[in-house]
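User: I'll paste a sequence; please echo it back and then give the predicted structure.

Assistant: Echoing your sequence first, then the prediction.
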Amino acid sequence: MRTILQAFLEGDGFPNELVIDAHTHIGRGFDGSRYIEEAAQRALTRMDAVGIDVSCVMGSQYLIEGDYKEGNNDLLWLHEHYPDRFVCFTNINPLETDGEDMQNRDHECYFSAAHAAKDSGIALELAEAAGLNLPLAEATKEQYDKMIEIGKGELDKSGIAELTFRDRG
């Protein structure tokens, strides 16, 4: 009986296996592509060449130009055109939306840490039911739970900075 590695090395790909690339970037400029359509075709060619069925992608515009919104627009296009080949993860820049508030300790509530803890718990229950292990999500929930424990659960989610900066008690 051949192993999966032997089958791949003999040119047969990964027989009867769904192959997922769990982390890659795509977008204009990242691989020399000028347009998302070109970047998508290049990515699909690379995926097909090595037997990858699905790729989990993040936009690259944030890495290149600092423009996560353009990268997210590229991901939306990608999702609309190749939903069976790409699982798209959007980018955000929390410093753009919450950075000044975090520095100034202005945590006027738009989405409370307590609410984030509840939602994180629901997401983790769904992940567990699907057999997924999400350590980063677990760590995030622990941080929100800690905010509740120390009486800061009604602060905005940006209040997590109160746990992050050492000079804050």
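The beta strands are 20-26, 54-59, 86-89. The chain is about 50% helix and 10% strand.
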